[in-house]
Each structure stands twice: as C-alpha cells, then as structure tokens.
Specification:
The chain has helices at residues 3-10, 98-101, 121-129, 167-176, 190-193, 197-211, 226-230, 259-266, 282-290, 314-323, 328-333, 337-342, and strands at 24-35, 40-49, 52-57, 65-70, 75-78, 80-85, 107-113, 135-141, 181-187, 215-218, 238-240, 270-271, 360-373, 379-393, 396-397, 405-407. By secondary structure, the chain is of the alpha/beta class.
C-alpha cells in the first residue's frame, strides 16, 4: 500500500447526499481562533463547506454540520505554512516523508527549499508533490543536481563546480512548472559553494529575476562576508538561517545587527528562520530581539538530521519563539499569513477568510516546564508548548484526530 493510499484510508468519509439539509461539511467549534490575516484572536466557530471556509462566527449550530470537531480549550489557526522543509524523501540527502512530518503536525502547505534542481525536479513532482497529502511546493535549486550530500563520506557541495549552475535550464524548468515552483534557492556555505558564492549568487539572481520570483539565500560560513551577499538582494528575497550562531550570521563581532542587513530589510528583504540542524541560536535571537529585529517568517528546515531533535516540527519551532517573548498572535502570523504573502501560491493558504481553502490546524497549549534546545545545543526552559492535535485540509480531517470528530 502506498503512502497516498494509506492516507486516504485514514481520512474520514464525507459523502454528500442529494438534497441534504447540511449547510456545512465540517464545523470546528469553540476554539480560540487566531487568524492574523483578519486580526482575529477570539473564541469562534469555523465552518467549512465544499472544501472552503464558509463562515467564522460565534455559536454556530452543530445541527447544520455533517461533522463537528470539538475544539473547546484549543488553539485554532489557519493550516501552517512552512517555507523551508526538505521532503524529497529517498532522493535528496536531507529528505524525509512529508505527511508524518508536515500535515500530521499542523503544516498543510510546505515549500521544499532547494532539494531538487532542474535535472531532479521531475522526480520531486512525480513522486512527492503528486503522491502526498501535504501540499508541497518547491524552490528550485540553481544547481541542476539539487542538493548534494554533505556527509563525511562525500562532502562536496553542488556549487563547487559552477558548470552545474545553469540559469537558462532553471528558467525553462520554472516556466514549465509554475504551479509548483515558487522561487529559486541557493546555498552559499563554503563547503557547498567554495569561493564561488558571489558568482553563484549572480547566476541564481539571473534566473529568479527572469521569472520574477523570490530568491531564498542560505547564509552562514560563506567565503564572502555576509554584507557582500545581503547587499545584492532585492525586495521579496529571503535570507534563511538568519538567526544562526557562529560565523557568517547577521550579527557583527560585537553582537550588533549588521547595517547591510538592516538596509536589506528596509528594502523588503525578509529574514527567515530556517532552524535546521545547525542554523538557529537562542543567543542570536535574543540579541536581535533586543535590537528590535525579528523574523519575517518562521520555518523549520526540518530534515532527516533534525527531525528527532532539536527541530522535531514547525510547532516546536514556534514554541521556541513564544519562549523568546513573542506573542502567540505574532508567532502564528509568521507561520501563516506572512509566508503566504511571501510566495505566489496558486491557492490561498494562511488565512481563514471566507472563500479561502479550508485548511485549519488545531493545537493544545500545554503548560509546564519545557526544555527547548537550539542548533548549538544550548537550552532554554519555557512554560508553554504548542502541540498539534488535529489538522484539516480542504475541509477533511487528516488521519485520526487526537480530539474527537462527531459524525452525523
């Protein structure tokens, strides 16, 4: 049985009967709804019909809904949008299965950040995008081979030879797959690009500008200083791994945010978290917050070397930013509405506005003493942890929800 067949079997059957009196297919009742796209943070019911949000209001009657999900005492948000994951399972060296690590954890829409290049993208589309329940989109790696292995067995990165960076082929691949490819990705760390970082960046920019899509740039440990990299970026581009520790981050030697980074942000460049196995530091985030510099988008960079810790999933990453002092509404905004606006998604994720796709995530806010670990092994203890308990995609409850779904 394929993963897709398993997922379909796990979903509840929502057959519609002719002449049915039901106004809604699913009613999510009584949760604390947080929808930054509407500046909404209050107890509400969310009704879904025909796979789309039909109504968000108080005290909707369950009698007119075919299914009811009791969300009282829970947090209800739009389905999370994670713009940095690696789900080219079985092919790219970082790849993991999408469904158990994304939609099952509240992220209905994700962007695979550069696992595939022009030569390997057809497999990502055929065997991941078309087969999984999670909505998977992609940033195309400027290298035609996509990500290469960075283990000790084969430490050679995909841009050490710039003959693999082919803007013309990238442009053609994007034009043929605009429904899935939403931008371009480049990794500039020295063991990936060597001394080629600025030349490789120029090739990636050539492709991104030709198709008028954002460029996501992976920083940290680069041959060239970060100032030279970020000063070349344009409005709508993203700097990922922005809150990393160590060499090549957005802080100077005195712990101050680099001036070129501030200027890039003023010009419309977004700071993306991209937690990953080595790219998020509590100390860096604390230092930037003191200087009123915050992420534009919070993403997990979940992959096979961090899915069992310290990342685990996007909800855990969001919990770390609650610990750092951001409000729940601010955190949810950076994992729903902000990323939804950062890329030209063909559907309308990140919102519970009437008519939007019926994607919803339901969480418990668990109180206690929670120890969180960053990518450097540093720990902080927080008092709140977001825990996914149910996910709805286009009006259908994914898998077996932890909270009960009452069928009529």
């Amino acid at each position: 049985m394929t993963r897709r067949e398993w997922a379909r079997r796990a979903l509840p059957l929502l057959s519609m009967q002719a002449g049915s009196a039901f106004a809604y297919d699913l009613l999510i009742r009584g949760g604390h709804v947080i929808d930054p796209s509407q500046n909404l943070s209050a107890v509400r019911d969310v009704a879904i019909a025909g796979g789309k949000i039909a109504r968000v209001a108080e005290n909707l009657s369950p009698a007119v809904a075919r299914q009811t999900l009791d969300a009282r005492g829970k947090i209800v948000t739009p389905g999370l949008v994670d713009v940095h994951v690696h789900v080219y399972d079985g092919v790219a060296p970082l790849g993991i299965p999408a469904d158990p690590n994304c939609i099952a954890k509240g992220a209905t829409t994700v962007v695979d950040a550069g696992s595939a290049g022009a030569h390997t993208f057809p497999g990502l589309r055929q065997y991941v995008v078309r087969m999984v329940e999670t909505r998977v989109f992609a940033l195309l790696n400027i290298s035609v081979v996509g990500q290469s292995t960075l283990s000790t067995d084969n430490p050679f990165g995909e841009l050490l030879d710039l003959r693999y960076a082919n803007p013309k082929l990238a442009i053609r691949t994007i034009e043929q797959n605009r429904d899935v490819i939403l931008g371009v990705k480049i990794r500039l760390t020295k063991n990936i690009a060597g001394e080629n970082d600025l030349r490789a960046l120029a090739l990636a920019q050539e492709a991104a500008q030709a198709v008028n899509l954002p460029l996501m740039v992976h920083i940290g440990g680069t041959h060239s200083p970060v100032e030279a990299i970020v000063s070349r970026l344009r409005k709508g581009d993203l700097i990922t791994h922005s809150f990393r520790g160590g060499d090549g981050g957005i802080l100077d030697g005195r712990g101050r945010v680099i001036g070129e980074v501030r200027k890039a942000m003023e010009n419309g460049v977004l700071l993306d978290v991209g937690h990953g196995a080595g790219s998020f530091s509590f100390a860096t985030a604390e230092a930037t917050f003191r200087q009123e510099i915050y992420p534009g988008t919070i993403s997990s960079d979940v992959h096979q070397f961090n899915v069992d810790g310290p990342v685990f999933d996007l909800a855990t990453t969001l919990s770390k930013f609650l610990l750092l002092g951001m409000s729940l509404e601010e955190v949810v905004r950076r994992a729903t509405w902000n990323p939804a606006q950062a890329f030209p998604f063909p559907h309308q994720p990140g919102t519970l506005k009437v008519g939007a796709v019926g994607d919803v995530a339901v969480f418990e806010m668990r109180e206690g003493k929670w120890v969180f670990t960053d990518s450097l092994g540093a720990t902080r203890t927080g008092e709140r942890r977001l825990t996914p308990v149910a996910t709805v995609k286009a009006g259908r409850v994914y898998g077996n929800a932890v909270i009960p779904v009452v069928r009529v």
